[in-house]
Amino acid sequence: MTSTLLNAQNISLAIDGKQILQNITLQIDENQIVTLIGPNGAGKTSLVKIVLGLSKPSAGSVKLRKNLRVGYMPQRLHVDNSMPISVQKFLQLAVRAKPELIEQVLSEVKASQLLHSQIHSLSGGELQRVLLARALIQEPEFLVLDEPVQGVDINGQAELYALISSIRDRHQCGILMVSHDLHLVMSATDEVICLNQHVCCHGHPEQVSNDPAYLELFGKKQAESLAVYAHHHNHNHSLDGEVIDPDHDHTHEGHKHG
């Protein structure tokens, strides 16, 4: 029997008289990936903070399963370049993790070679994998990923979304993910919630991409460019998405460029 990890009912948020969120209901079960999409200012990060208990809603309730282990990957990490810190030390600061656990999570996100690298020297794709590893150190039953592919090029984004899917399959955890790229996240999510202060539409990715509310929000031309993205490849990418086996052909079937 599937267990519910998160049940958020009728969440509203107003700050200084400005409505940020209005009557949002959200449920996430174990082994389920739910993705929030929406324009800038739609309230996606505000909802994530409420789910995590980092801020309180003006109305509504959030219930997490008792003793639920939660892993969080923030949207941004500000690193002071004047204070060198290695990936190993950064991950040790998350929890008092044993060295073998740090090596294990880095291996899981395919970034073992970064163990002794300096955080400030990492590229966008490398940093996102380290942040994902940091979330996995908690051995989470519920993962919250706020824009997990930010600062990563398009090939690297597809690789990261595939990695996130494999993590769900391996750990049977529930995942709440924030994304602005429906076309890339289509194959890596079970349900999409289109947010613009309120829930405009929700359902399976293909359903949402054809919903009139989604088309109105993003514009028909842009929405058409967000076609189902099936990423088939027989080559490898670096952590930034660059092809490192150029002798092999690759195809992006169903991908339209807007």
Explain what the structure shows:
There is one protein chain. By secondary structure, the chain is α/β, with parallel strands linked by helices. It has a domain at 1-69 and 174-226: Rossmann fold, CATH 3.40.50.300. Helix content is 31%, strand content 27%. The chain contains nine helices and eleven strands. The protein has helices at residues 44-51, 87-94, 99-108, 124-136, 154-171, 182-185, 205-209, 212-218, 220-225; strands at 4-15, 18-29, 33-37, 59-64, 70-73, 142-146, 174-178, 191-196, 198-203, 230-233, 250-253. The strands form three sheets. The protein has a six-stranded mixed beta sheet with strand order 5-6-7-3-8-9, with helices on both faces. Strand 8 (191-196) and strand 9 (198-203) form a beta hairpin. Helix 3 crosses helix 4. The protein is globular and about 50 Å long.
Question: Care to give the gist of this entry?
Answer:
With 258 residues, the protein is of the alpha/beta class. 31% of the residues lie in helices and 27% in strands.
